[in-house]
Specification:
Mean pLDDT: 91
Low-confidence stretches: none
Helix content: over 70%
Largest sheet: none
Radius of gyration: 19 Å
Shape: flat
Distance between the termini: 42 Å
Number of strands: 0
Number of helices: 3
Strand content: under 5%
Order of helices and strands: HHH
Structural class: mainly alpha
């Protein structure tokens, strides 16, 4: 659970930026978006395979550039 400790001299904008950074780093928002709607296991598998293909193609393009 992300949280920040503030001192008296810290302003609200600084604290908010720091908190948002911790939330993003912990992956809470991405997990929330993923769980917002139910996905059947078959659709999850298809998305996972598509992401793997996309990573592979990106890697291959990068290797061809060199």
């Amino acid at each position: 659970m992300p949280g920040i400790i503030l001192s008296d001299s810290d302003n609200f904008d600084y604290a908010l930026r720091k908190f948002k950074k911790q939330v993003e780093k912990s992956g809470i928002l991405s997990e929330l978006k993923k769980r917002q709607h139910y996905e059947k296991p078959s659709i999850q598998k298809k998305k996972k395979e598509a992401a793997a293909r996309k990573r592979l193609m990106k890697k291959m393009r990068k290797m061809q550039m060199m």
